[in-house]
C-alpha cells in the first residue's frame, strides 16, 4: 500500500477500490462533525446504485455479475451520497442515485459510455427538482445531530435545530452587507480550529489526504486537482483585492467541496478529458465556470453545473490536445475522417 | 376597423418586403458563390467500385454517381455491396438502404476466365469489356488480365461459344489475414462475447 | 584496434513500458547445439521473402546448403542438413496465420555433405554483396524477415546494429553477441565498407553488460578502420523498434509513411550481420539461435538449431514433455503469436519459443483512462483508434494515426479493461492496406474505362470524317458525270 507503483492499477476494479479507500478519511471526518446522516445516506445510495444497475443490465440483456463486481457503480453511489446534504431524507438519496445510474450511465450504454459525470448529473437533477430540500438540509457543524436525530432526519422529520446554511450561501446572502471583520465574528469562523471554518476545514483536510494518496498511487495524475485548485486560487485572489466585498480565497478552496471535487469528481475518467494536458484544460475550465457561477449566479454551489458543462466540452478538448505523433510535423487538430 | 386593417396590412407588407429582400439576397449568393462542376458527384464516384458493369442501369459508374446526386436510389450497385451503400448513405447524410440485389452473389470477388481450348478468337468479348482487360486479336488467343478485370461479367453474354467462366479472384500464395479481435476477446465465463456492455 | 566510444543515450522514449524483463531465466544455462531432428520442414510460401517455388522434387537428395526454395523477392532458402526430400505436402507452420500450407519435408541422413557457395574476396562492390545476400538467403533475423539486400543502397550514412532486444524473455541476440561477436563486427564492417558508411552505431540496452564487454573485446582485436558509436539505452520496451532506435541513438525522427532507409539509416539485427559475414565466406543460413524460455519449460536456455527443426524437438531439448503444453508463443510476449501444432518447423525468423501459463482476463468496456495513450511510443491515441475500429469507421481510425502504429502491443500491457488493442490495430492496418489496394484497382479501372471511351469516341469521329469525305468525293464525281452527260446530250 505504501510503496509507489510504477503504473496505474492494472484492473478496473482495483482503480475503483483505490478511490473508495481514499474517500474513507473524508467519510470518517464528515460523520464526526456532521452526524450519522452521511452514513445513512451512504448506505442508501450504495444499495440504490447496485439495484438500479442490476435492473438496467437486466433490461439491456447483459450479464450482471461482471459489471457489478467492478465496483464502478458503488463509487458513483458513494460520490452522490457525499455530495448531498447530510440531513437528506431517504427519498432524496434514492432519487438522486437512481437517476444518476439510470439516466446518467445506462441510458448511454453503461460503463465507459456516459457523456457526463453521473454523480453530478444526479446531483443537478435533484437540485432543480427539490430545491428546498437541497438548500435547507445542510447540517450546522457546531450543533450536529445525534444518532436518533439523524435517523429522524433520514425518515423525513428533520429539525431546524441542527440545520443551517452552507458557507457559500452565508457569503452570498448574509455576508454581502458585512465587512470582513464583522464576518469573522460569525461562530463558524470564530470557533475554527485550523483557522478557517469550523468542521468544514477538517473535512477538506481529510479529502486532501485521500486525494494525495491517490496521486501517490498513480491512480490519478496531478493535472486535474492542480488545474482546478490553482485556477480558483488565482481568480479569487485576483478579485479579492477588497476583503470586505469579495469572498476570501480560502473559502473558494475549502468550502463548496472544492477539494472533494478536485480529487474525486473531476477525475472521473469516462466523462473527463483523456490526455493529461486535456485534463488540465478541463479542470481550468471547471474552475473558471465555478467562480463565475458562485459569484454571479443563483446557485451557491457551482461545481456540479461547471462539471456538466465541461463534460460536454471534453471531446473537443481531446481533439485539440493530442500530442504530436512521432514522425509527423504537427499534432492533429480536430476530429476527422468520415467513414 | 381602419386600425385593424392598418395593423394587419403593415404586417403583411412588411413581411413580404423582407421575403423579397431575402430572396434577392439568395439569388445573388447563388450566382456569386456558384461552384463549378458538382463535387458531390466526384465524391460519390470515389466510393463506387468502378466495375463499369451497368447493373445499376447506367452506362458506367460516373453516370450512376451523377444520377445519385440528382436523387436516384443509392442501393443499385451489386459489386459495391452493402458496404458501398452504407458509405454513400453516410456521405449524403441519409438513411442507408438494403442492397437491391442478391447479397450472396454480390459479396463474391469474381473475375472472368476464358477457357482457351474453346476460344475461337472472335474478339466479341474484347469489344464488350469496359475496362480493356482482355488481350487478343482476331483469330488469335484471347486472355483476361486478372489484375485488370473488375468482375462485371459483360463479356459472358457476347461470347458465341460460351467459353468464359466467372471464377473467384485468385489470391497470392502467401496471402493471409490476421485474426479478427472479435474472435479472441472473451467474457468472464470463457465464452466469446460478440457485444460489449 | 577499431576506434569506438561508449556513451549513455541522452534521449528518453516518450511512452513505452518498464516491465519485468525475465532475461535471467534463459541465460542461466549455456547455449547448446541441438541434435539433428528426424524431420526438417520448410514452408514454401511462408519462409520469408514472399511466395516461393520449390527447386527440388520428392526423392531428390540434398546436401547442407542445397537451394530448395526460390522466393518472389529472389531470396533462396537452403536445406539445413544433408538428406532426402521426403514429401511436399500441406503442413502446419510456425506462422501467425495458423493455416496449413505447402511444406518441403526433408529427412536428414546424418551425413556431413555440404553444398556451399564459393567465398567472395574483398574488395567487392555493392552489387556483388547484394547478389551474395540473395543466394545465401539473408533476411532480417530479428523476426520481421525483410530481405536485407533491399535495404542496401548508395546514400546511406549510418548503420545501426540493433542490439537492444527490448522484448521481455528474449535473449537470442544477447547470446549471439556473446558467442559470435567477431562475425557480427566483421559483417558490419564489410557492409559499411561496401556502402561507404562512415559510422556504425550499436544500440544496446544497459541490462546486457556481458554482451557489451564482448563487443569491447572484439573491437579491441579488430583491425577495421570503421568508427563504432556504442549507445547505452535505458531498458524500456520498445526501444528496439527501428523508428524508436533511430530516434534514440541519432535523434532523427523518420517521417511518417517512409522507412528509415529513406532517411539514410540502415538498421540490422546482430544475427543478420553475423549471417552476412558467414555468407561472404560461402555459407548460407542453415542454423540459428532460438531462445527456449518461459516458466513452463523445465530447463529454459538458448539453443542453436537447424532451420526447419520441429518445435517439439526444441521443447524436448529443454527437458520438457511437449504433451504437457497446450500452446507456445513464437516470438516474445508482446509481439509473438500462438502456435498449437508443435510439428511445425522453425524458420529463419523464429527467434524465441515462449511457454508460460497466463490467465486470460475477460474484456470489459473502455473507461477512457488514457493509460494506453501514455504508454504508446509513437504518441498515438489507442483509445480513439479502437473506438473507431469497433464502430467500423476505418477512415476515422486512419485519421487518428493507425498507419503509424508499430504494433508493439505496449497498450495491451497497460489496459485495465483487458481490451486486445494491438489485435484491433493489426487487423485495422491489414484492412487499411486492403482498402488502399482496392482503391488503386478501382482508380485503374476508372482510368482504363475513360481511356476506352475516349478511344471509341475518337474512332467514331474518324469514321464520321471518313464517311463525310467519301460522301463529298462521290457527290463530286456524280456532279462531274452529270455535267459530262449534259454536254454530250
Describe the structure.
The complex is a heterotrimer of chains A (339), B (197) and C (489). Chain A has 2 domains: 35-164, no CATH class; 167-322, no CATH class. Helices cover 62% and strands 1% of the residues of chain A. Chain A has helices at 12-34, 37-59, 64-68, 72-83, 90-104, 118-129, 131-136, 147-155, 167-174, 180-184, 187-190, 200-216, 223-239, 249-254, 258-265, 276-296, 303-320, and strands spanning 138-139, 163-164. The longest helix of chain A has 23 residues, at 12-34. In chain B, the strands form 2 sheets. A two-stranded antiparallel sheet of chain B has the order 1-4. The longest helix of chain B has 31 residues, at 2-32. Chain B starts with a helix and ends in a 29-residue tail after the last strand. The model of chain B is unreliable at 187-197 (pLDDT under 50). The radius of gyration of chain C is 29 Å and the shape is globular. In chain C, 35% of the residues lie in helices and 18% in strands. Among the domains of chain C are: 3-34 and 121-302, NADH-ubiquinone oxidoreductase 51kDa subunit (Rossmann fold, 3-Layer(aba) Sandwich); 363-489, Fumarate Reductase Iron-sulfur Protein, Chain B, domain 2. The interface between A and C is large, with 36 and 46 residues.
Q: Keyphrases for this structure?
A:
heterotrimer; A: 339 residues; mainly alpha; 2 domains; two-stranded antiparallel sheet; 62% helix; C: 489 residues; alpha/beta; Rossmann fold; Fumarate Reductase Iron-sulfur Protein, Chain B, domain 2; six-stranded mixed β-sheet; five-stranded parallel β-sheet; 18 strands; 35% helix; globular
Structural class computed from helices and strand pairing of chain C: alpha/beta
The number of helical runs of chain A is 17
Please write the string of helix (H) and strand (E) elements of chain A: HHHHHHHEHEHHHHHHHHH
CATH class of the domain at 3-34 and 121-302 in chain C equals: Alpha Beta
- The helix fraction of chain C, in percent, is 25-40%
Amino acid at each position: 500500500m505504501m510503496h509507489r507503483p510504477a503504473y496505474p492499477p492494472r484492473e478496473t476494479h482495483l482503480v475503483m477500490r483505490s478511490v473508495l479507500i481514499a474517500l474513507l478519511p473524508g467519510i470518517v471526518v464528515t460523520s464526526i462533525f456532521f452526524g450519522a446522516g452521511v452514513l445513512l445516506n451512504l448506505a442508501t445510495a450504495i444499495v440504490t446504485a447496485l439495484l438500479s444497475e442490476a435492473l438496467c443490465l437486466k433490461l439491456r440483456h447483459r450479464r450482471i455479475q461482471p459489471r457489478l463486481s467492478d465496483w464502478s457503480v458503488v463509487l458513483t453511489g458513494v460520490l452522490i451520497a457525499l455530495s448531498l446534504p447530510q440531513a437528506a431524507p431517504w427519498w432524496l438519496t434514492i432519487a438522486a442515485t437512481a437517476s444518476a445510474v439510470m439516466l446518467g450511465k445506462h441510458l448511454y450504454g453503461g460503463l465507459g459510455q456516459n457523456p457526463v459525470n453521473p454523480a453530478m448529473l444526479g446531483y443537478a437533477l435533484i437540485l432543480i427538482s427539490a430545491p428546498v430540500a437541497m438548500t435547507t438540509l445542510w447540517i450546522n457543524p457546531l450543533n450536529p445531530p445525534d444518532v436518533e436525530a439523524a435517523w429522524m432526519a433520514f425518515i423525513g422529520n428533520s429539525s431546524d435545530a441542527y440545520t443551517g446554511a452552507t458557507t457559500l450561501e452565508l457569503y452570498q446572502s448574509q455576508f454581502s452587507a458585512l465587512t470582513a471583520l464583522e464576518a469573522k465574528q460569525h461562530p463558524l469562523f470564530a470557533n475554527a480550529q485550523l483557522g478557517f471554518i469550523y468542521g468544514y476545514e477538517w473535512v477538506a483536510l481529510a479529502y486532501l489526504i485521500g486525494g494525495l494518496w491517490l496521486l501517490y498511487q498513480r491512480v490519478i495524475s496531478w493535472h486535474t486537482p492542480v488545474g482546478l485548485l490553482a485556477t480558483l486560487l488565482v481568480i479569487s485572489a485576483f478579485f479579492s483585492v477588497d476583503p470586505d466585498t469579495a469572498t476570501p480565497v480560502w473559502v473558494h478552496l475549502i468550502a463548496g467541496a472544492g477539494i472533494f471535487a478536485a480529487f474525486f469528481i473531476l477525475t472521473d475518467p469516462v466523462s473527463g478529458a483523456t490526455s493529461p494536458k486535456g485534463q488540465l484544460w478541463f479542470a481550468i475550465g471547471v474552475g473558471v465556470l465555478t467562480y463565475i457561477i458562485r459569484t454571479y449566479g443563483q446557485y451557491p454551489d457551482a461545481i456540479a453545473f461547471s462539471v456538466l458543462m465541461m463534460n460536454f466540452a471534453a471531446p473537443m478538448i481531446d481533439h485539440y490536445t493530442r500530442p504530436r505523433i512521432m514522425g509527423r510535423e504537427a499534432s492533429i487538430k480536430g476530429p476527422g475522417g468520415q467513414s | 376597423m381602419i386600425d385593424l386593417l392598418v395593423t394587419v396590412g403593415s404586417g403583411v407588407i412588411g413581411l413580404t418586403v423582407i421575403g423579397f429582400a431575402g430572396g434577392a439576397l439568395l439569388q445573388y449568393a447563388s450566382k456569386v458563390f456558384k461552384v463549378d462542376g458538382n463535387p458531390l458527384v466526384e465524391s460519390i464516384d470515389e466510393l463506387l467500385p468502378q466495375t463499369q458493369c451497368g447493373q445499376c442501369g447506367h452506362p458506367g459508374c460516373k453516370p450512376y454517381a451523377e444520377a445519385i446526386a440528382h436523387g436516384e436510389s443509392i442501393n443499385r450497385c451489386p459489386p459495391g455491396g452493402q458496404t458501398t451503400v452504407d458509405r454513400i448513405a453516410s456521405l449524403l447524410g441519409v438513411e442507408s438502404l438494403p442492397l437491391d440485389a442478391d447479397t450472396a452473389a454480390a459479396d463474391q470477388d469474381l473475375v472472368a476466365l476464358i477457357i482457351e481450348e474453346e476460344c475461337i478468337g472472335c474478339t466479341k468479348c474484347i469489344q464488350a469489356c469496359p475496362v480493356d482487360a482482355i488481350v487478343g486479336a482476331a483469330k488469335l488467343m484471347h486472355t483476361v488480365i486478372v489484375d485488370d478485370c473488375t468482375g462485371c461479367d459483360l463479356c459472358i453474354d457476347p461470347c458465341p461459344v460460351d467459353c468464359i467462366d466467372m471464377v473467384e479472384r485468385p489470391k497470392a500464395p502467401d496471402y493471409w489475414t490476421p485474426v479478427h479481435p472479435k474472435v479472441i476477446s472473451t467474457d468472464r465465463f470463457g465464452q466469446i462475447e460478440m457485444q460489449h456492455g | 584496434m577499431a576506434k569506438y566510444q561508449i556513451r549513455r543515450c541522452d534521449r528518453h522514449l516518450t511512452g513505452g513500458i518498464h516491465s519485468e524483463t525475465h532475461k535471467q531465466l534463459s541465460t542461466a544455462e549455456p547455449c547448446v547445439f541441438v541434435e539433428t531432428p528426424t524431420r526438417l520442414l520448410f514452408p514454401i510460401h511462408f519462409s520469408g521473402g514472399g511466395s516461393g517455388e520449390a527447386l527440388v522434387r520428392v526423392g531428390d537428395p540434398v546436401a547442407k546448403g542445397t537451394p530448395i526454395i526460390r522466393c518472389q523477392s529472389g531470396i533462396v532458402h537452403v536445406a539445413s542438413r544433408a538428406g532426402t526430400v521426403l514429401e511436399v505436402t500441406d503442413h502446419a507452420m510456425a506462422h501467425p496465420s495458423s493455416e496449413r500450407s505447402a511444406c518441403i519435408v526433408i529427412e536428414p541422413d546424418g551425413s556431413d555433405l555440404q553444398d556451399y557457395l564459393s567465398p567472395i574476396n574483398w574488395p567487392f562492390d555493392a552489387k556483388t554483396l547484394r547478389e551474395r545476400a540473395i543466394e545465401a538467403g539473408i533476411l532480417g533475423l530479428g523476426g520481421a524477415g525483410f530481405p536485407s539486400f533491399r535495404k542496401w543502397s548508395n546514400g546511406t550514412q549510418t548503420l545501426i546494429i540493433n542490439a537492444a532486444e527490448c522484448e521481455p524473455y528474449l535473449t537470442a541476440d544477447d547470446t549471439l553477441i556473446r558467442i559470435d561477436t567477431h562475425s557480427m563486427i566483421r559483417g558490419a564492417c564489410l557492409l559499411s565498407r561496401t556502402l561507404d558508411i562512415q559510422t556504425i552505431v550499436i544500440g544496446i540496452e544497459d541490462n546486457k553488460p556481458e554482451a557489451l564487454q564482448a563487443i569491447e573485446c572484439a573491437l579491441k582485436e579488430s583491425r577495421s578502420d570503421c568508427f563504432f558509436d556504442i549507445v547505452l539505452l535505458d531498458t524500456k520496451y520498445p526501444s528496439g523498434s527501428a523508428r524508436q532506435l533511430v530516434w534514440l541513438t541519432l535523434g532523427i525522427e523518420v517521417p511518417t509513411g517512409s522507412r528509415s532507409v529513406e532517411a539514410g539509416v540502415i538498421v540490422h539485427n546482430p544475427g543478420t550481420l553475423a549471417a552476412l559475414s558467414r555468407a561472404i565466406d560461402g555459407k548460407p543460413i542453415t542454423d540459428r539461435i532460438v531462445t527456449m524460455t518461459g516458466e513452463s519449460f523445465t530447463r529454459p536456455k538458448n539453443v542453436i538449431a537447424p532451420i526447419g527443426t520441429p518445435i517439439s524437438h526444441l521443447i524436448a531439448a529443454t527437458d520438457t514433455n511437449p504433451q504437457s503444453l497446450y500452446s507456445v508463443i513464437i516470438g516474445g510476449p508482446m509481439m509473438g503469436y500462438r502456435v498449437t501444432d508443435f510439428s511445425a518447423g522453425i524458420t529463419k525468423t523464429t527467434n524465441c519459443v515462449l511457454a508460460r501459463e497466463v490467465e486470460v482476463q475477460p474484456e470489459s468496456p473502455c473507461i477512457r483512462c488514457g493509460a494506453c495513450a501514455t504508454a504508446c511510443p509513437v504518441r498515438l491515441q489507442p483509445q480513439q483508434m479502437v473506438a473507431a475500429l469497433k464502430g467500423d469507421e476505418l477512415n476515422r481510425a486512419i485519421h487518428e494515426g493507425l498507419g503509424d502504429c508499430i504494433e508493439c502491443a505496449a497498450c495491451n500491457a497497460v489496459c485495465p479493461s483487458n481490451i486486445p488493442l494491438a489485435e484491433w490495430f493489426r487487423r485495422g492496418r491489414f484492412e487499411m492496406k486492403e482498402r488502399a489496394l482496392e482503391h488503386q484497382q478501382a482508380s485503374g479501372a476508372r482510368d482504363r474505362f475513360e481511356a476506352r471511351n475516349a478511344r471509341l469516341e475518337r474512332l467514331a469521329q474518324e469514321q464520321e470524317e471518313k464517311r463525310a469525305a467519301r460522301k463529298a468525293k462521290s457527290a463530286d464525281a456524280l456532279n462531274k458525270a452529270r455535267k459530262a452527260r449534259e454536254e454530250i446530250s
